[in-house]
Structures are given as C-alpha cells and as structure tokens.
Amino acid sequence: MHVLVVHNRYASAQPSGENKVVDQEVELLRAAGHRVGVFERRSDDIAARSLLSKAAVPLLVPWNPAVRTELAARLRTERPDIVHVHNVFPLLSPAVLAACADAGVPAVATLHNYTQVCPPGTLQRDGRPCTECVGAAAPLPAVRHGCYRGSRLATVPLAVSMSVNRRRWWSGVERFLCISAAQRDVLVRAGMPAERLVVKHNFVPDPDDRRSGAGEHLLHLGRLAEAKGVRLLMAAWDEIAASGGVGVPLVIAGAGPLEREVSAWAAGRDDVRHVGLLDAAESRKAVARSVAVVAPSTWLETFGLVVVEAMAAGVPAVAAGHGAFVELVEDGVTGLLHRPGEPGSLAACIRRIAAEPALGREMGQAARRRYEQGFSPAVGLERLVEEYRTAIAGRTESMGGSR
C-alpha cells in the first residue's frame, strides 16, 4: 500500500506524544513493506521566519492556499492509495483536505484531541472541564475566555478555522480514527458523523527495558502543565510527605509551562527529584524502574500514551478515573484509578501501591498482558491497515454510486 502521511510537527522544546505516535506509525508501516511518504511542516521553523511572515501565520490557520497547491501537485504525481492526516495546526490548515479532493485521493484523519469541537482541543478552562463550545455553530465562548494560551487574539484563528471548516472536515474525511472510545463518545455527542468515527488505539513499541523488581520510584512523565495534573500531584505528595512519606521518591520528568514552579517545589527535598526532559532511552529506563507511573490529568485525556508505555514495561499506573484512562486502566487489576481532581484520593492510591509490592507486581504483570492483547505493534498495524482499506473501499463505492 502507498500511504502519504500529513502532519504539522509540534515544537521540539516540549515533549509531544503526537509527534511520537506519527513517527512510530510511519516506521511500523515501512517495516511491514508499505511505501510511506511524509508531507509535513514544522512549528520549529516559525522562529526562523521574517517578522512579516511570522505575523501572517495566524492568517494561514483557517486556510493555507499554498499548501493546497503543493499537496495536490504531489498527490497527482505520486498517486498514493490513501492520505493519513494528523495535525494541521498552524502551518498546514484544512486546505490539505481540499488537496485530497482535487487529486481524488481518499483521506483518513487521526483525532489526537478535541479540536473538532473545542478550539484549544482540551475541553477544559481554568483547570476545569468545559463544553461551552461543543455543538455551537461558532465557538464564541472560547474567544471570549481566551482559551488558547490565555489570549483572545491567539484563539481567534482557531475559532474561525473550527467554524468555517467544520463541514469540510466532516465531508472530506472517509474515516476519523479516534484514539479511545471515551473520545469517540464525546465527539458523537457533539454532532460529528458517528458512521465515520471509529476507535483505533495508539500502539506502543515493545521496550527493551521492563521492570524486574518492585521499583525504585514513583514517576510522572510528560508535559508539565495544569491539564496534566501537575499541581494536583504536588498537593497530593505534600499530603503524603506530611504523614511520613511512602519510602520511595517521586521523580518528575518533562518540560512545560509549570517547569519553574515544579523545580522550585522540588528544590531542597530528598523525596522529590525533578530531572527535566528525558530522551526516549532515558524515559524507557525511568518507566521500567518505577513502582508506578502517575497520570493525574485534570482534562479528559483522549488516550494517555505514558500509561500504555508503562503497561508495555510491566508497570502499573495510578491515573485519574475519567477520559480514556478508564478504558486503559482496570482499577485494582492493571493499576489504580483515583477520583479526578481530588488530591486526597490520589494520595491514597499512591500510598496503597507503594505499600503493597506484591500487589504492584501482580498489577504490572496484568498490565503487560493487557498491552500484548491490545496495544502491541502487531495489533496496531492490523487495525491501521484495516482502516485504510475500509476508507479506500468507501471512496471507491461512493464514486461508483455517483456516476
């Protein structure tokens, strides 16, 4: 099969699970003998643009005509069987869908977040769930609240794009690949076409590093942001420390807007280590040495890659009991779920998993079995190719019916 992957890469200064997923899928398909091309833009390149060019970037968010022309020409030359769209913000835009229509090539799109129904894609505002824009013809509340980066001006291009391109997305994509059932449910309730929304979980490569003992630390690995529950974790850990601790330190790895706050909080403590941004190999080792991976996100995670990476290493997770986590973590079997947003509940789960090493080992083994059954590369490849074939067949059928 000949596949063209379309993706706007996120800035490299902060970890991106989405970039990782795209790279791993490309590698997986190529290793299986499929021909895979990549059409991409990089947010890192914006910094090198002229002042005038930088100022024009928001205008390209709803529609980039140059991308339409360039991609359509490439599609006509290469004639791939399918185009797989991932992120189009900020430099690609939904013009990629027009290019696919121009060249007559079917498209599938992986939905990594909620940008179809929420301009910043988080369904969260001020640290709390928010659905004010869901189902609205124009997402004006997002602009009013400045939901993207706390700025009304920065939110406007996203809101405009969501409003004017809604129908283009819904008609121009053969199959939307949701990365969890929880995400699909939200999008169906928001009015997206249910018949085009399917669940295809992300896969995780089988790691060389797996847990062999009880673990050396508890680990929070990911972007240091409010939505990831970082402040919630700090509050829970302070509660744990005040009652004597759990005998192992908390390791916080990652970068993000709360990095200075985390670093200041961890400074001078022997029960917390802030280790900054780890590379892929260091991350795998840190996971494999964990008592548990802690994922206390306050937003409704669409997947939760770090939880599945922990499963692959035979490590249980302590995660918030909402969003995709409830389908990834079987409470009491492959990990523990805490009540979302409650530091006391999170602290209780951390205490339990640290105090019962035998239970932790059992959960880790069960988590590894769950990984093998649902999130391995073999399973990921099978599901991906199946959806490509369904999309191609659907386009062929609709074209046949229109003649």
From TrEMBL:
<dbReference type="Pfam" id="PF13439">
    <property type="entry name" value="Glyco_transf_4"/>
</dbReference>
<dbReference type="InterPro" id="IPR001296">
    <property type="entry name" value="Glyco_trans_1"/>
</dbReference>
<dbReference type="GO" id="GO:1901137">
    <property type="term" value="P:carbohydrate derivative biosynthetic process"/>
</dbReference>
<keyword id="KW-0808">Transferase</keyword>
<dbReference type="Pfam" id="PF00534">
    <property type="entry name" value="Glycos_transf_1"/>
</dbReference>
<feature type="domain" description="Glycosyl transferase family 1">
    <location>
        <begin position="218"/>
        <end position="370"/>
    </location>
</feature>
<dbReference type="InterPro" id="IPR028098">
    <property type="entry name" value="Glyco_trans_4-like_N"/>
</dbReference>
<keyword id="KW-0328">Glycosyltransferase</keyword>
<feature type="domain" description="Glycosyltransferase subfamily 4-like N-terminal">
    <location>
        <begin position="17"/>
        <end position="204"/>
    </location>
</feature>
<dbReference type="GO" id="GO:0016757">
    <property type="term" value="F:glycosyltransferase activity"/>
</dbReference>
<protein>
    <submittedName>
        <fullName>Glycosyl transferase</fullName>
    </submittedName>
</protein>
<dbReference type="InterPro" id="IPR050194">
    <property type="entry name" value="Glycosyltransferase_grp1"/>
</dbReference>
